[in-house]
Structures are given as structure tokens and as C-alpha cells.
Amino acid sequence: MTRPEAVLFDCDGVVVDSEGPTFALFLQDLAAYGLPMSREVFEAEFVGGTVEMVAVRARAAGARLPDDWVADFYSRMYAMLADGVPLVSGVTEVLDRLDAAGIPFAMGSNGSLEKMQITLGQHGIEGRFRVILSAQALGAPKPAPDVYLACAAACGVQPKACMVIEDSANGAKAALAAGMRCLGYAEHGPETPSARALTALGVPLFHRMADLPGLLEL
């Protein structure tokens, strides 16, 4: 695999290990409003979008969400994450290796800037990225390619020379639509719904962040 000229990261589930508690909060709410489901179903049908997208899909499936649910969910999610959320194991070492190799890296997420400030800020790593962008703030959530194209431009690198690290199909679709290569981080193995969706797109998987420097030829 040719060494990339820039590496672009998703946030949740790739840099910040926030998906477990966030999924649990979603499942609790959906069940309370008449749409109980397993984590596997939620991961297969809802992951990779915004809270607003979850609301639209959940209501279409029969959830009786109140009108102010999106704003209320964001408020409770931010408070939960502010209590403490770990980084994905090994990700700091990956950033160190990229710095040592002189390869710029950026972050493009469907999450809000406020959410990333909360999760990254508690670890003091937000300043390490060339830029941190919210696809939601750009008005073009993944699978639209806009956020990754903007990340590449901020790094001064052509899209085809970038490598994107993603954990969802929507994110991978955004990378591929931008003309970028993509690797899928599948911490829990190849048989989760997200991992299977990445494989279906032809995205190679890896399961330990410690393996990423080798894959990037660092």
C-alpha cells in the first residue's frame, strides 16, 4: 500500500471510544418512545448519520419522539460525554507516528463541533489535527464527500493522495465519493453490521489501531 500524503480520521469509534455509551443512550430513548431494538439492529440501520437523521428514521419506523427530542438528546449526550470518554486504544501512538513522518492529518465527522470539542478537549489532542470539521456544520453530512474534500484541502493534499480511516458505511461512502482510499476500523471483528457494510463496499478492515502505522507504511 502506497504511503498516503495525508490521513483523515472520523471521530467517534475511530479516535474517541464514545460509541458504546452513545448507542446505549439512543437505545434507551428509542425504547422509551415505542421503538425497542437491539444494538445490532441499531448499528445496521442508524449508525453513521447525525442525531437529526436518527430522528427522521426512527419516526418513520414508528417512534413517538417529542418535537424537542433532538435538542434534548444532544444536551444529555454532551453531559454524558463530558463526564469522561476514553480515546481509542493506540490512537495517540498513531498520531505520534504521523507527526514523526511529517504526514498531516485532519478530522471530518458527522458529529457537531461542540461534541468533538468535548470529547477531544478532555484529552488535549484537538490541536494536533490540521483541521477538525463537522459535516453537519458544512450542511452536507456523510455520505456526502464534502467534509473529506475540505479536510484534504486544509492539508494541502489532493484527494487521491489521502487515506481515510472510518468505521461506518456512510463515512466510507463519503471517502470513496471524494476519490480517496479508505481503511475500515473494526475493533470488534469482521462480523458486526458496520464491519460487514464496510466489507460490502470493498473497504479493507483492520482490528487494532496498533496495526495502522504498518498499513500506512509509516
Report helical residue fraction: 40-55%
CATH architecture annotation name of the largest domain: 3-Layer(aba) Sandwich
Number of strands: 6
Distance between the termini: 11 Å
Integer average pLDDT: 95
Name the strands of the widest sheet in spatial order: 3-2-1-4-5-6
User: What oligomeric arrangement do these chains adopt?
Assistant: single chain
Q: List low-confidence stretches.
A: none
SS content category: alpha/beta
- Coarse shape: globular
Number of helices: 11
Order of helices and strands: EHHHHHEHEHHEHEHEH
Would you tell me which CATH topology of the largest domain applies?
A: Rossmann fold
Please, how many domains? 2
Q: Summarize the main sheet.
A: 6 strands, parallel
CATH class of the largest domain: Alpha Beta
Strand content: 5-15%
Radius of gyration: 17 Å
Tell me the CATH superfamily of the largest domain. HAD superfamily/HAD-like
SSE map:
Blueprint: E1 6-9, H1 19-32, H2 39-46, H3 51-60, H4 69-82, H5 91-101, E2 105-109, H6 113-121, E3 132-134, H7 135-138, H8 146-155, E4 162-166, H9 169-177, E5 181-185, H10 193-200, E6 205-206, H11 212-215
Parallel strand pairs: 1-2, 1-4, 2-3, 4-5, 5-6
Could you explain the architecture of this structure?
- With 218 residues, this protein is of the alpha/beta class.
- The protein has two domains: 6-18 and 86-215, Rossmann fold (3-Layer(aba) Sandwich), CATH 3.40.50; 19-82, DNA polymerase, domain 1, CATH 1.10.150.
- Helix content is 46%, strand content 11%.
- It contains eleven helices and six strands.
- It has helices at 19-32, 39-46, 51-60, 69-82, 91-101, 113-121, 135-138, 146-155, 169-177, 193-200, 212-215; strands at residues 6-9, 105-109, 132-134, 162-166, 181-185, 205-206.
- The protein has a six-stranded parallel beta sheet with strand order 3-2-1-4-5-6.
- Strand 2 (105-109), helix 6 (113-121) and strand 3 form a beta-alpha-beta unit.
- It starts with 5 loop residues before the first strand and ends with a helix.
- The relative contact order is 0.18.
- The mean pLDDT is 95.
